Amino acid sequence: MLLGPSLAVSAVLFALGVAGVLLRRNAIVIFMCVELMLNAVNLTFVALAQQLGVAGQIFVFFVMAVAAAEAGVGLAIMLAIYRHRHTVNLQNINLLKG
Amino acid sequence: MDGTLIIFWGFAGLAVVSALSCITRRSPVASALWLVVTLFSLAALFVLLDAQFIAVLQVLVYAGAIMVLFLFVIMLLNLGPAGPTDLKGPAGLGVGVLLAGGLFVQLLGLARAAPSPGLVLPPGAVARAAAEQGMVPAVARPLFAAYLVPFEITSILLLTAIVGAVVLAKRKL
Description:
The complex is a heterodimer of chains A (about 100) and B (about 170).
Chain A: H1 3-23, H2 27-52, H3 55-85
Helix pairs in contact in A: 1-2, 2-3
Chain B: H1 3-24, H2 28-48, H3 52-77, H4 90-111, H5 125-133, H6 135-144, H7 148-169
Helix pairs in contact in B: 1-2, 2-3, 5-6
């Protein structure tokens, strides 16, 4: 069965997504890393759906819908920030840092 | 080692390598294109895991629609040539790698766990259901019966996202 290898691959992809969020400064690349994490979770759902029934595949639909909504709203926020600050580098967006 | 496992590890390796490239490339456009490669390899893994319809959706929705949206915004912002590096300094780099590595070790422990035997369907049950009912109906029937309420709530979520995106991105309402 492919369950164990799939869960291992999704662990690798999720950790890479977390590393990307923590290491990058460009807000758009950080968004892409969040998408990578969502995809790692999708792989977990599909791998477990093979053994536990088709409900896992239906959850992937909902994850995709939430990811699409998140990408739309998030990129609109990026546009609004860029219009105000003329950068999407998170080093320069530190108003809450104190 | 049979053929399925060889194909699985081939696409899994491609997914991991391209994800690594995605988080290390300097230019956002290169990152986005490497992420598209990851999404395509994940679609191949979904086919191997008896989820053909999800694999098609992955290519259409993720690699098609969402990544085009990302590339479009990168183009719209006209970010110009990337600086010498986009990564954080040595302290941030160390903390990030340490945290991600710790999380990876913990998640890898999860990969050895097996679902409780009472819940596991007989091997090949999902593939058999797809062969009997058709690939799309096997997913669609429960979606519109048992999961109808979450499905409708999803439509409200998407409507909210559309309105929110327009309000945020419009210069003057």
